[in-house]
Design a protein that fits this description.
Elements lengths: L12 H10 L10 E5 L5 H14 L3 E3 L13 H9 L4 E6 L7 E8 L2 E14 L17 E5 L2 H4 L1 H14 L14 E8 L2 E12 L7 E6 L3 E10 L3 H8 L12 E3 L5 E3 L23 H15 L31
């Protein structure tokens, strides 16, 4: 017998706000990531997870307890954990004899697994072996660089590149100043391997207006090998990437300025300013001489004006008044 899912109704205002945040939005929030440790993991995988958590903070959380999960066999438990933490991205660590130093990363769409890749760590160099990661501010948007023709030719690496962008891009920006670029992440595809490198930028003065950019490696330095993958179909991936039209239909001759005020342009026929009725003022009233000159000019153009004969009106009834001078009703005395 199927289990009936109960509709969660909030009992407090705080609970209502939490449920409203979890509802779908036209403009999405920054994607949140959950780091899930497996039942068994090695020191290399655990250290790599902690370093990736530093790069992803503050939009990430690390779970403390171990989870006996097999993502490629049954992903229901991962979907429940992501739904609980209101997240769409995840990292899962595991280690066994068949697949040592294993790291699984993936994302969900409509609370179901969309893409999932299993990467094996061949070589790893942690952030503690470098200097300078502590100087990078938390929440900085990194510059993502993808090198290698395989990211464009191979469909698997092409989808993996899209997943890396979802992981580390944070919120979209229209403009950025050069001093705001502090962190650079490089992904290089060479010989069926993906090399992850992290750099800190240093701007030095030059004789020109543009400064000189120097890169100092700060870690982590990881060499990945793609083992298994679970990719969504082309139709489902296209549906997940579809965005609603926020701007709506464009209205002709209507725009908005930088302050959000609505401005419009009206198109009218040509007007004769001399015939417009302006405000009547006593000071603008024509004199008798000006009216006489205008009347003569009209007579020269149109001929002498013909006076209309007066129409004989009926004699008005005399009002009857009483002796005291008051008007009586019905004209009676």
């Amino acid at each position: 017998m199927a289990v009936i899912q109960r509709v969660v109704k909030p009992r407090t205002k705080r609970g209502k706000r939490i449920l409203l945040k979890k509802e779908p939005k036209i403009i999405e929030n920054t994607k949140h990531c959950v780091f899930i440790p497996g039942r068994k993991s090695s020191l290399i995988v655990s250290s790599c997870m902690k370093d990736l958590l530093k790069l992803k903070k503050p939009d990430a959380v690390m779970l403390t307890h171990k989870n006996d999960i097999l993502p490629f066999d049954d992903a229901v438990q991962i979907e429940k954990l992501l739904q609980k933490h209101d997240s769409s991205l995840f990292f899962f660590s595991s280690h066994n004899k068949k697949r040592p130093n294993n790291l699984v990363l993936g994302r969900t769409y409509d609370q179901h697994i969309l893409d999932m890749f299993e990467l094996g760590i061949e070589s790893y160099k942690g952030c503690s072996e470098f200097k300078g990661l502590s100087e990078i501010s938390a929440g900085v948007k990194p510059v993502l660089v993808f090198l290698g023709e395989q990211f464009d030719s191979d469909q698997q690496l092409k989808r993996l590149r899209n997943l890396f962008i979802d992981m580390f891009q944070r919120q979209p920006l229209k403009q950025i100043r050069p001093n705001g670029i502090e962190h650079v992440m490089s992904f290089t595809a060479v010989d069926s391997k993906i090399l992850l490198r992290s750099y800190r930028t240093v701007l030095s003065k030059t004789s020109l207006k543009t400064p000189r950019v120097e890169l100092h490696e700060v870690g982590p330095s990881v060499d990945f090998v793609v083992r298994r993958d679970h990719m969504a179909s082309a139709d489902l991936f296209k549906t997940a990437c579809k965005r609603p039209n926020i701007k709506g239909k464009k209205i002709k001759s209507v725009r908005r300025d930088n302050f959000g005020s609505k401005l419009g342009r009206l198109h009218m026929t040509k007007q004769d300013v001399n015939t417009l009725q302006t405000r009547k003022m006593k000071g603008l009233k024509k004199t008798y001489a000006e009216r006489k000159i205008k009347r003569k000019s009209d007579e020269d153009k149109n001929g002498p004006a013909v006076k209309k004969p007066k129409v004989a009106t009926q004699n008005k009834k005399l009002k009857k008044f009483s002796k005291k001078g008051r008007k009586l009703r019905g004209g009676q005395v």
